[in-house]
Design goal:
By secondary structure, the chain is mainly α. The chain contains 6 helices and 3 strands; from the N terminus they run H-E-H-E-H-H-E-H-H. It has a 3-stranded antiparallel β-sheet with strand order 2-1-3. Helix 3 crosses helix 4.
Length: 135
């Protein structure tokens, strides 16, 4: 790898680190296929400029997490963290549409349903402690 290539790679890492403010995990359960649409809230003033881009794209039409990451040219995990911030501010919502609400008998809840439930619970109780999973 050339010095220029290494510098560009390090610059991209630093930019992603500052974009997420050092966070490595989103607060919400979001699958790659989770669909988002604008909500009634507004993002805080400290939100990254990419958050405004996410909102603008979702105002055009509903978008999936993976589509937003591709459009922004950012790592999926970083975009999930930004989306989580927007969900916390009610600036984005996970719509519960008919195909996701009724996945068929015995199939269990869909990722979309779990994402919507997770977002709603975290809005209602933002300071709740997550319970460790049973091993």
């Amino acid at each position: 790898m050339t010095m220029h290539g290494r510098a560009a790679e390090e610059s991209a890492f630093v930019r992603t680190y500052t974009l997420t403010r050092g966070r490595t995990k989103p607060r919400h359960l979001l699958g790659l296929e989770t669909v988002l649409e604008p909500g009634p809230g507004r993002p805080g003033p400290a939100q990254a400029e990419e958050s405004a881009e996410i909102l603008a794209l979702c105002r055009e039409r509903r978008r999936s997490v993976v589509e937003l990451a591709g459009r922004l040219g950012r790592p999926v995990t970083a975009v999930k963290i930004l989306i989580s911030d927007l969900l916390d501010a009610d600036a984005l919502v996970v719509p519960l549409t008919r195909p996701y609400a009724d996945a068929g008998a015995g199939s269990g809840p869909s990722t979309q349903l779990l994402a919507a439930l997770s977002a709603g619970l975290k809005r209602k109780w933002p300071d709740a402690v997550a319970y460790p999973q049973a091993g």
